[in-house]
Amino acid sequence: MATPIDQAKSPSTSPKGKEKSPSVSPRHSPSQSAGPMTPLAGLVAGDADNPVPVQVDHDAYPDDPADVDSTYGSDQDSAYTGSITSSIYNYQYENGRRYHAYREGQYVLPNDQQEQERLDLQHHIWRLLIGGRLFTAPLPSMANEEDELRILDLGTGTGIWAIDMADEFPNASVFGVDLSPIQPEWVPNNCRFHVDDYEDQWTYHEDEKFDYIHGRALSGTSADWPRFYQQVMENLKPGGWLEMQEYDAWIFSDDDSCDRAPWTMEWVDKLDAASRMYGKQINVARYQKQWIIDAGFEDVEEKVYRIPIGPWAKDPTLKELGKFELTHMQMSVDSHTPALFTRVLNYSKDQADVLMEGVKREFRSRDLRLITTYRFIVGRKPLNWQGGGGGV
Description:
Layout: H1 4-8, E1 18-20, E2 92-94, E3 97-99, H2 113-129, E4 150-154, H3 160-168, E5 173-178, E6 186-188, E7 191-195, E8 210-216, H4 225-234, E9 236-247, H5 262-278, H6 288-294, E10 298-308, H7 316-344, H8 349-364, E11 371-380
Parallel strand pairs: 4-5, 4-8, 5-7, 8-9
Antiparallel strand pairs: 1-6, 2-3, 9-11, 10-11
């Protein structure tokens, strides 16, 4: 039986029509872009001020409690070949997880196989939320062969979104930027990956500006969001679009479930506190829309989706999403906790492990109705924008 991670992974494809990215030397991977997805009907976006309660299916869970606890193995890391500076692959190992080497310490999440599986599963969830699509900004139809868009994906991770966009827009030039060279070796001809830190000064020239800049789950990665959005603005073409896909680093409920989930609420509270102390607050998704407006973007819109953690919702769409989100959130606990809690809050590994297990146990509980929120925020650069020049 296919697991949520299996379903989120892309079908195996032939290298035909693909080429190696010259800017990285990533691992071999049988997965390319995510295949066609069946849209989940009935999902309605709300807004942050008027959330729609999630109706509960009281018969959602199986008779065997073990059936709601999923553990997924992972393949061994594939071999790398060296075509870029080898120091980028001098990964740091800590608390049983692997972290990036380039600009060590700038990013507190791991980059190992377990984390890559989480990112690909998360990609599947984002697509399900919007009917299998990759974006909500009003980009030209992929059927228009005249559109040679320049697209930038910030924090590209495994590169799965960038690869899917390159497949969907074969005449576009798609660029993915990340601190870790963990993208697949065979990619579409129109897709490139670069190891870089978008917190640095951007160095794109005037003729390299973008039609569309995309960022997903970047909360906790920037120490200066106004500067970040200023650089995005400067490097978009007039009329170009920004899209941020973010989720709140917090847990919600429509009843008293949060009051009955002490491990979970301690975790999110301390996670946010530790990220503040680290200098890159993680629970900032709710501020992104205003920051984008303050940066001068026009036509800014935000859609907020609420996803149950677990298959307890009555609505079949939310039930399906909840199954994936339960797995994703358990993996997120494992990836988000170790570095911040041991480096900043001085937890021992054993203390962090106890906390993580308590949180995951509450996520699996039949008696708790916990909810996460995902946000899609888009904004357009004004045609007559006068501030600053390109990032040269």
